[in-house]
Amino acid sequence: MTKTFRPIVYLCNSGTGDTEQYCRFALKQGQIPLSPLSIMTAVQDEDLKTHISSVLLGKCNKLWVFGDTITAGLKAEFNVAKRRRQPIRYFDSFMNEVKKYD
Question: Please, is 81 exposed, middle or buried when counting C-beta atoms within 10 Å of its C-beta (0-12, 13-18, 19+)?
């Protein structure tokens, strides 16, 4: 395997999609996926979830959003990425790129 630059992409979804499939999709697109959904399900405190998301998103080059449902948590992640001027791409649950939600 050749060592080429692969950006880290933060994958978020409302928890209704197939996270493993989204990760495979990102890998095929030449990205390194970071999907914190499994971490977030263990955290009960909403402020801590927001903090963890912000820290992890700061390690990534961009944000990809999957699914058809936009939750308050997803909107918070959008806002962090926007403030940091990180590129955001939106996909439906079938991994078809769609128009921005916001």
Answer: buried
Cβ–Cβ under 8 Å, residues 68 and 92: yes
Give the predicted TM-score (pTM) of the model.
Answer: 0.82
CATH of 8-98, one of 3.90.170.10, 3.40.1080.10, 3.40.640.10, 3.40.50.450: 3.40.50.450
Q: How far apart are CA 1 and CA 73, in angstroms?
A: 37
Rounded distance between C-alpha atoms, residue 37 and residue 40, angstroms: 5
Instruction: With H, G, I as helix, E, B as strand and everything else as coil, classify residue 100.
Output: coil
Rounded CA separation 96/98 (Å): 6
Residues 6 or more apart in contact with residue 9 via CB below 8 angstroms:
26, 31, 32, 33, 34, 60, 61, 62, 63, 64
pLDDT of residue 46: 86
